[in-house]
Design a protein that fits this description.
Helices cover 52% and strands 16% of the residues. The protein starts with a helix and ends with a helix. The protein has a 6-stranded mixed beta barrel. The protein has 12 helices and 10 strands. The chain is an alpha+beta fold. α7 runs parallel beside α11 and α9 runs antiparallel to α11. The protein has 2 domains: 201 residues, no CATH class; 154 residues, no CATH class.
Length: 378
Amino acid sequence: MNLYFLIAKRFLFPKKKFTSSAINFVSFVGLFIGAASIVLSISVLNGFQDILKSESIKLYGQFEIENYSDKADKSIKDYLDSNNHSYSIYNVDELIIISENKQSLIQFKSVTNQSITDFYNLYLTEKHEALYDNEIIIGNALASRLSLDIGDKVKIISKDFKFSSFGVPEAREFIVANIFNNRILRANDSLIFGIIKDSKNKNLSFEFNTSEALNTNLSSKISSWKDRNKQLYEATEIEKKITFFTLSLIILVASFNLSSSIMQITSKKLKDLAILMSLGMNKTGIKIIFIIYSYLIGAGAIFLGIFFAILIINIQNSFALIKLDPEFYLVETLPMNLFIGDIFVLVAGSLVLVGIFSLIPLRFVKDMSPNQIINRQI
């Protein structure tokens, strides 16, 4: 095998053969660009997907149990309590908020003061202090649309318009105690946090972040952040697959070029091949030489492209050189994250393509013989 490698290496770096070196270089660059482009593009999509996850968890937790029951789900709560994990028991109602002549449909999330401090990660305008029953925390987009500021008063009524005995819709007055900022899923445009006043006769829900608690009592009611954002998450997954497939065409085209390179180098090395076959090397050995030759170009370009992309990702994550407009992208710098699984799929698929296209031009080797080659050269 060492002999095959040395011969393939000699074919790859011929002396005083600029044309052959140029063909090899073009094939190498194509595969390099393809691999680097896929890694960089997928890492950006992974980065935005991570932002979706982290921002969703800040407001809703990683896992949710709808209609929490002390009997059916008590084991999970006991596990979290015994291991000092944070969680939140809450209730959500769809209501209407009114400020002067403006109104909007909202989700009123009733939680505890401890949950606001220990569980939810809200970017608040002012330092958090304990909320009273008549105080709320609203999103900055909702506050801007209703022209509200901290300390202003609003009225909240049921969207079903429950009327009092005087024929007036029942309404409660609240004071805006704080404003949070979180643009993901338009949460700051419709979500309001308040304090649970009375949990009796309410269908409470339960949010937590640790997956270990699921092992204590698996319940069909449990949903993850992916389940609750299924459409958006699946959209990003489809975009990743389309991006991967589209950029893989670069590697496909480069593999065609590599196949052409092997055909040309084979035609240029007919005398060498005749000598090797005269010395006893069989046709399988000739094929092995050119397979090694193709993988020296293909695998080298792919791994170097991946290494270059990983270097760019680390530089961006460390120094944030690429800036974004937070008004459109939610973040100030380009997020990049790479998973080992993505690299494995890229490497496996690329090496399979290189192998296939390296075998195509070698089909005519089976018809070669030393005498035929020598007669062609005379």
